[in-house]
Specification:
The protein is of the alpha+beta class. It contains three helices and four strands, in the order E-H-E-E-H-H-E.
Length: 100
Amino acid sequence: MSKVKHIVLLKFKEGTTEEQITKFFEDVLDLSETVPGIDDYVSGTNCSQGGLNQGLTHGYVMTFSDVAARDAYLVHPEHERFKAMAIPLVETVLIFDFEV
């Protein structure tokens, strides 16, 4: 059984406050502690000096115990609630999952 790395890279809309960004990541942390099957969660702000981030400024990585856990998370009511709050704040998002 393979674990799944769920990588989310994003850029917030102009005018999004630091308080809103902080709340966004607090809510993702809550998801990682609430939804079953999430083994690990880390987040941060881009610090690359390479200039290849294409405007993406923040990101997080969740590690799911397996593909089924990731699939259950995607339709989980808490994830749906989070998306309803988050989508209006985000200008660009890139999501990339892979098995390890």
